[in-house]
Amino acid sequence: MIRSTRRWLAALALIVLSLTVLGTRLGSAAAAWLTDDKDAAVNQLTEEEKKAGWKLLFDGKSFEGWHNFKREDVRPGWQVKDGALVCVDPQQAGDLVTADKFDWFELSIDYNISEGGNSGIMFHVTNDGRAIWATGPEIQLEDNVKAKDPIRCGWLYQLYRPEIDPKTDKPLDATKPAGTWNHMRVVIAPPPAKSEVDVNGVKYYDFVYNSDDFKARIAKSKFKNMPNFAKFDSGFIGLQGDHGAISFRNIKLRPIAAKDTP
User: Is the peptide bond before 192 cis (omega within 30 degrees of 0)?
Assistant: First the structure.
């Protein structure tokens, strides 16, 4: 009886070990499948997005559709790495702009900024200014912990910022730490419809482009003496190569027609 029990226990242990190994392999395969599936979704449009009119501005493989401001090429400080548009060397980067101009749109974009990094997303950029920020308003991107600029991430530079968060007694901050991916949604709508900026799914503020309030804020900012600042209803979308490294991916845009706004 003792020998039979020992044989039975040994057989049972072998079965448990086999199931454990099989489960580990299946779990690893499932994890790999999920990872691959997630990676496959980067820089691609879903069927629903295609039906809704979204456009992919970055294919994850090349600089197609992009060039440096007032140039036809891309400077070596920008690279395409691991499915992302990366500013690896701000000293050799400069600012990128789209090949196409856009008027009213919804922009969806992921960014990952280095510690102390500072960058920006600009809209309605034209070649009428000596610098990209001389025409296009800038939505600030930065590491809110270590960057030196007091204009924080997601703020429309010197124009609009989120309300005070009662939990911190500081302007609302929904950013994730430097070195991780953040998501930004930007709506630039034809007046009198409201434009909007969201960070990681949290609404920061809204505004009416070129409204009296918008113009009054410009008049109090450093842009007041720039004759072409925010004077255009169409222009390039720009990505700034400024301080520190930054990566962009999933750059998607949906045009907004005036008839689509209330």
Answer: yes
Residue with tokens 């430097």: 178
- Phi, psi at residue 261, to the nearest 5°? -105, 150
What is the dihedral sign for C-alpha 92, 98, 102, 104?
negative
Which two three-digit tokens encode residue 56?
């992919």
What is the distance between the alpha carbons of residues 133 and 123, in angstroms, rounded to a whole number?
9
- CA 211 to CA 191: how far, in whole Å? 8
The sign of the CA dihedral 97, 100, 106, 112 is negative
Strands, E assignment, the chain: 55-56, 66-68, 78-81, 84-87, 96-98, 105-113, 118-125, 138-142, 164-165, 170-171, 182-188, 195-199, 202-207, 236-239, 246-255
Helix (H) or strand (E) holding 4: helix 2-41
pLDDT in tens, 61-81: 999 999 999 999 999 999 999
Here the tokens at position 181 are 């991916």
Contact 240, 95 (CB under 8 A): yes
222-262 pLDDT, tens per residue?
Answer: 999 999 999 999 999 999 998 899 999 999 999 998 766 65
Return the DSSP state at 175.
P
CB 183 within 8 A of CB 201: yes
What Å distances lie between residue 126 and 21, 47, 97, 227, CA to CA?
61, 32, 9, 13
Q: Taking Cα atoms as reference points, which of 236, 256, 125 lies closest to residue 191?
A: 256
